[in-house]
Amino acid sequence: MDSIIFILAAATFLATLAGGIIILKFKKHLHYFFAFGAGSLVAVAFLDILPESIELAESVSLPINYLMLTVVIAFFIYSLLEKFFTTHDICHADECKGHIMGPIGGGSLVIHSFLDGVAIGSAFSVNPATGLIVAFAVIAHDFTDGVNTVTVMLKNKHKVNDAIFFLICAALAPVAGVLLTLSIVIPIPVLAIILAAFVGEFLYIGASTLLPEIQKSSSRRIMLVMALGIVVIAVLTALI
Length: 240
Fold this sequence. Notes:
Elements: H1 2-22, H2 30-59, H3 64-84, H4 101-126, H5 128-155, H6 160-183, H7 188-214, H8 221-239
Helix pairs in contact: 1-5, 1-6, 2-5, 2-7, 2-8, 3-7, 4-5, 4-6, 4-7, 5-6
């Protein structure tokens, strides 16, 4: 089982790197990747993570209201991060050069990537099936993490080498998160709360961050790609 987790951790590393590299090569088609990520993240939040969190809470008589409140708080916290740290189009023309929001935004994405690794490790501690599904969603999302890390640096007038540095940090972060969860034992009530927090996170990223990006596209096919992301998760949750 540990070998599978390590393979998935390596996949998150490669997915993040790929996102950062591909944005420099295929900018015209990124909206399709955003669409798939939006569908898969929202689907995995509702179809797998939240039910698992509720099941864990019920096993230890933890009130379900605590989980719902955690979802809302997590959603709100990530909205604050998006508002103050990773706001798109921060700089226009020559308004800023090497703006501090570049490293702040890149750093917050590194932390977010670390929490993605924690999500994978925490899910595997629930059961392997949940771990695989969450890992799939995280890997798909880590591609956009790589995209966003490079974007926030370049939009804030930082050099490509600086963007690559933050990209590498963001790629290593989920691996560190996975390793942390392997070295500690998480109590069931805490695990239920952690999973609920990632429900809020995934909902925010999928519905509030990625969805507005894909709505900018005039292509009707983009909704089919989003639907594909939902269908893939629905099938995985039914089969695994």
